[in-house]
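ARCHIVE CARD
Drawer: 12
Card no.: 0347
Subject: one protein chain, sequence and derived structure
Cross-reference: see card 0346
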Amino acid sequence: MLSTAKCSTPPPAALMIAMLWLTGCAMVGSDTRAPCPPVVEYTASDQASAADEVEALPEGAVVVRMLGDYAVLRDQARACR
């Protein structure tokens, strides 16, 4: 024989309190920012040597595209400060 137990519903005030409590918890970490990555500074001599090395690469070298991506990341890291 099956029992027909009646489920009790929590009062509306309890539901409202639970909702407000959970909403408050969600707001705790919303203002945190990830730390900015460091930007390595290169000497003028290092930059000139790198430019010479890039010029010596064959046309269409994939590493040139990768260096362009790296330049974008460096600009973003500088803007983060």
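Annotation on reverse: Residues 39-81 form one domain. The helical segments are 12-27, 44-55, 62-80.
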